[in-house]
Amino acid sequence: VLFLWDTTEKNLDLALSLLYICLKPT
Question: For residues 24 and 15, what is the distance between their CA atoms, to the nearest angstrom?
Answer without folding.
Answer: 14
